[in-house]
Model the fold of this input.
Amino acid sequence: MMASDLWRQTGGVWPCGVSSSVTWYDLGAIAHILQTAHIRTVLEIGVEHGGLSAWLMAYGRYTGIAYRGVDITLNALQTQVGVVDRSAFVERDAWTAEAVEDARQWLSSQPAPALIICDGGDKPKELHLYAPLLRAGDVMVGHDYHNEYSDEHIADVGAEQVFTDWLSDTLLCCFVRRY
Done:
């Protein structure tokens, strides 16, 4: 039997052959959210190399989930991801009022519920900026929780934080809008 620590290692996940900053546990939790919350739309803030993007887009091809990725630069995006559907990516500073408004308009034109994934350069800032966009039934996750930030940074996000056993091995914090 082969021993491995890749389950918990960021960068150890290469879904669809493209490196990702999430762990296998994170990817499993995201898949769990997609399935159990019946997610129809995904907005990813911070795509970097596009590993999670590639997986989400492939998943969307089979399930009909709409996808959009936003990053300040798409220079690190692996070419095989861009070949899939370059129009799914928006190159802009996700922290500007214009970017948030653009995301609000895009989300309002897509089916609910949505999953917003915050994995850019300042996750607490992104969680605070994008929480007001959550509609009833929508879910939002922030990556690198307890790695780059803690509870004190997200205490006033403005959505209900979810604490559950299937998140305990991940680097994710999770919020929902129930009403």
In short: The chain has one domain: 15-176. The helical segments are 24-36, 51-63, 79-85, 97-108, 123-130, 151-154. Strands lie at 41-45, 66-71, 89-91, 114-118, 139-143, 160-162, 172-176. The chain has six helices and seven strands.
